[in-house]
Amino acid sequence: MTINTLAKGAWHREQMASFRKMEKVIVAMQDPDMGVKMRNQRLLITVIPHAMTGRDIIDWLIQKYNICEEEALHVGAMLVRYGYVYPLKEPRSLVLRPDESPYRFQVSQPPLHPPAIYLAKKNIRKQGELMEYEKERYSVLHKRINHTWDFVVMQAREQLRASKQRRKADRIVLECQEQAYWLINRPPVRPLLLYSVVLDYIETCRRALGRNRVKSSICLEGFVKYSEQYLNHDPIMQGCLPSNPWISDDTAHWTMNAEVVPSPTRLRVERWSFSFMELLNDSMGRREFMTYLEKEFSAENLCFWQACEDVRHGENSRIIEKVEDIYKNFLAPGAARWVNIDSKTMDKTLHGIRHPHRFVMDDAQMHIYFLMKKDSYPRYLKSDLYKNMLAKAVVPQETKKSVFPFMRRQRHASPSPAQAVAPEDGQAKGAGQAGTNSAAGSQA
Amino acid sequence: MCDQTFLAATFGPCDSCGKASPLMNIYIKNDAINYCSFCMEVMACQGLQSGETLASLKKESDSLKKKLEEERGKLNDIELHQVAEKVEMLGALSIKTKRLLKGHGNKVLCMDWCKDKRRLVSSSQDGKVIVWDAFTLNKEHGVTLPCTWVMACAYAPSGCAVACGGLDNKCSVFPLSLDKNENLSAKKKAVAMHTNYVSGCTFTNSDMQLLTSSGDGTCALWDVESGQLLQSFHGHTADVLSLDLAPSETGNTFVSGGSDKKANVWDMRSGQNIQSFESHESDINCVKYYPSGDAFASASDDSTCRFYDLRADREVAVYQKDSVIFGASTVDFSLSGRLLFAGYNDYTINVWDVLKGTRVSVLFGHENRVSRVRVSPDGTALCSASWDNTLRIWA
After folding, report:
1. Region entry Disordered: which residue ranges (chain A) (predicted)?
2. DSSP-assigned beta bridge partners for residue B129
3. pLDDT in tens, B376-387
4. Please, are residues B366 and B388 in contact by the beta-carbon 8 Å criterion?
5. Which phi and psi (to 5°) does residue A197 adopt?
6. What interface predicted TM-score (ipTM) does this complex get?
7. Residue A420 pLDDT > 60, yes or no?
8. Closest of B76, B118, B93, B99 to residue B338, by C-alpha
9. Quick check: B116 and A432 CB within 8 A?
């Protein structure tokens, strides 16, 4: 749905799909064999034919769509709210009661297809003389709302008949208003824009035909593996230790998993082995990896990668100075932390540095990234450094659920990340720490 | 400025004849063309005269589309739910409302979590943007924007700023200050300028760049410090309603979904449309990447959510049910990607099993349509924003 349709108060295009679906439900409900049980309902002293009880509607929905009572009540409430079914008792209260209250199907349905009716009216009146785009719309609409077409034509005829009886002046005004309204709200059909759009589409298609695709069995297997691997890390599915802060009001889980902790949790350290990106995304993991690389005398690779990231995501105004720094420290012959890139990439990068832009280091950065990923990272995972970290890692004890559930813990505030900003430093990284801090104003 | 509306929007010298007149601004193959209406007609006629009629172009595009579908189908050797047969069924989930955030005076349209896992920012129809500590229910900052319908808001990765935009056609960045006397509105910085409403915004990997999507049919990448347009993305033929950044290691792509029923994947560096998916039957209201970055999900007015695999280049699952009648407006994945949370216009949130394609649970509670659902950064909770003026935290 776009805001434009809402703001103009125009016909709710987004709801067409929903109305169509609701109509399907209504049609199914009205089926003489499989639909809702219809009976004569007693209302005070009158007997109303072809009515149904609220309870019957609910039961039918439960059975037909295999849903629970709560959902059936919800769906039924929508049917009543949108006028497809109306209550015989207390007609102003549009609710669905799951009891003996009588309901009926709405015969003259709420105005659903204004443009269809307008076009049908015009068609009838001018005996088929519609403008080209109107003819197209007419047939498109006809196809779409085929099953209610008779109703639409009937409504059109009704409206025409009613309008004939109005005063001529009013009629003309009304017609003009209607025509103007639909003129404004018709979809734009400009041949030129269609031209550029179609050209664009053809190009996108051509490019798409040339791309490499992977077999479904391989891709889909990937999703299964990913979900399995991360299952224990998904708190909504498996819970988290010691407890989910939102449920227990205890922020221990966040304290234990803060950015910088003396001993990280086991799950966290395990996660570093899932992928190189997981290791780099965790600041503690990155620090550990750096320590390892220092032992291997290849720490300049990670430093270089970080500096390139800085160029890519930093301010426009500092790109030139940052690229110069990188050249001085990593790429210049005899540089203090010279990185080993293949000659082709090095040449291309050095050439690009003459006119530095945001992506000038991309190729070199990619080369170093994959070097670390294929070489240093697997060795890190097999190293003593990592294995010790894993062995030392903490597995928090699960907090037993409180015996007295109404004794709620105090919910402590945490220092806001905004606090850590130094105004001159545009790249300040907030601490983002959440922890108990009773001095900072707690709220029970 | 980014523009792809169908009406003349600027005035100036025509690129072709040089006369000053109302200009039509369109893009052909990523090149901007600003012609007066007369020169535009001439160009169209010339294009059509050179052997291509609009009809023949359309025929070509239709046949290409068919070929593309065939190519995609060739590697389709198995369906997702078949692969998922060996996976264990999910047990019953017990998800309840744990926090109710009251404070907005009007429909809440958007929200975003902070990286600290407990703070969030939300924006509403009356122009108010509030930063909450959702854990304690404290409201920490509040700004009132001069425009209504603030449809997009985002928290900066550092936690030190928020971006928001909407009907004012702009996206502004506010640094968050803890000085109570400071007027946040005064420090506002307008970064993005579109020619129609801003429907979505997100920071890229740092506070320095902002990605926006707009009702003018384009997406754009901006430098926050200078407000400069770094890259614009053209290809949608109607309003772009949503976007999401890819969590991939090379971090260069994002996906957008729009009223033209298409979901497009873009390369941020070149501005090119890399992949396009068109299988929804109505507007795509929201798009969100799968945690691994190899796929994404979309929510649409046709009451379905769909799952698209980027490596196989096709739709691999449709999440729908006959009893789900109303359009879906928002989706998000749980941390492992096994669950898909979708918010609907019938006030509910449906929880789907991504692999098996079945519905696991329904969350009732909101009293009006759900405009946004987002899982917290560490996956411990789900936040939903609704037109009933509240936000709910579920866990």
Report:
1. 405-444
2. B123, B143
3. 999 999 999 999
4. yes
5. -65, -45
6. 0.85
7. no
8. B93
9. yes
